[in-house]
Design brief:
Layout (H helix, E strand, L loop, with lengths): L1 H9 L5 H13 L3 H6 L7 H15 L4 H5 L1 E4 L2 E4 L11 H9 L9 E5 L5 H9 L4 E6 L2 H13 L6 E5 L10 E6 L6 H5 L3 H4 L15 H8 L5 E10 L5 H11 L4 E6 L5 E8 L6
Parallel strand pairs: 3-4, 3-6, 4-5, 6-7
Antiparallel strand pairs: 1-2, 7-9, 8-9
């Protein structure tokens, strides 16, 4: 394992030891803890061969989650692949922002716009059993992954999939909108780490020259689709949190807004509680 970690570090992996543990455990069908419990156990040639291919893929820059086909999010395992973004821990702040504003026994309709793997929609449906969640995406391949994740976690009856752009895919009003839209500028994406720049879907990352294109499109699609009162929660790049907040308050004047920090104390979520007449 140490040699594998050293090899990956030499090929640019920033979390080489963790990557090595995950890949070896996956290749051998073990838990990570099993690697330490059997640390001195010799490996057969077939086992070594099984390890080499995923390690080679990681050394070429492919994300670990695409190699193993799974990523944990909010204590659940989600299928991922090159058609969807790899869920990030920071996005759990977005989910928590919604859960904090929707009581456990509440019955409402939520929308996850740009759902990707469905990790947000599925988590919200699982954590709030009286809700339904409409998960939208422009990519049929991403929606297929989201559908499998909904089935995997037993919420397929309460997660509806809709193909289309932002709220334009919704056919009825919703009480809560949540989204993790693209928020990197084109230049930032071009300078991003190799595993992001070369492997994750560019359309889910690139938000144009100023990093705000997706927010403008999303917000312009919303007013006619939000019931009142309503909750809106958006993940943001900390560098543009104030810009997104301004777009939200311009779209929904009078909304009660806040910026929420992630565990690294970076502004990660803009949330708005919107009351009043939808026509206002």
């Amino acid at each position: 394992m140490r040699l594998t970690a050293t090899f990956l570090a030499g090929h640019g992996a920033t979390s080489a030891r963790l990557d090595a543990e995950l890949l070896i455990a996956h290749a051998l069908g073990l838990r990570r803890i099993d690697l330490y419990l059997g640390y001195d156990r010799p490996l057969a040639e077939a086992q070594l061969a099984a390890i080499r291919e995923p390690v080679r893929r990681r050394a070429a820059g492919e994300p670990v989650a695409y190699i193993t086909g799974v990523r944990e999010f909010y204590s659940r395992a989600f299928e991922v692949g090159p058609d969807v973004l790899v869920p990030r821990p920071e996005t759990e702040t977005l989910v928590q922002a919604v859960l904090d504003r929707v009581p456990a026994g509440a019955g409402c309709v939520m929308a996850d716009l740009g759902t990707g793997s469905g990790c947000i929609a599925v988590t919200l449906a699982a954590e709030r059993p009286r809700t339904t969640v409409v998960a939208t995406d422009t990519s049929p391949a991403a929606l297929a992954v989201a559908a499998r994740n909904a089935t995997r976690h037993g919420v397929e009856g309460r997660v509806a999939l809709a193909q289309g752009e932002w709220a334009g895919a919704l056919t009825a009003g919703v009480d809560v909108v949540v989204s993790n839209p693209p928020y990197l500028t084109t230049a930032e994406l071009d300078d991003a780490p190799r595993d992001v720049r070369c492997f994750e879907p560019r359309g889910a990352l690139d938000a144009g020259v100023d990093g705000l294109d997706a927010y403008r499109a999303l917000l312009s699609s919303l007013p006619a689709k939000l019931r009142r009162p309503a909750v809106l929660a958006l993940e943001v790049d900390p560098r543009r949190a104030d810009d997104v907040l301004l777009l939200v308050t311009t779209t929904f004047p009078g909304a009660a807004t806040a910026k929420l920090e992630d565990l690294a104390h970076d502004d990660r979520v803009v949330v708005a509680e919107i009351a009043g007449d939808p026509a206002v």
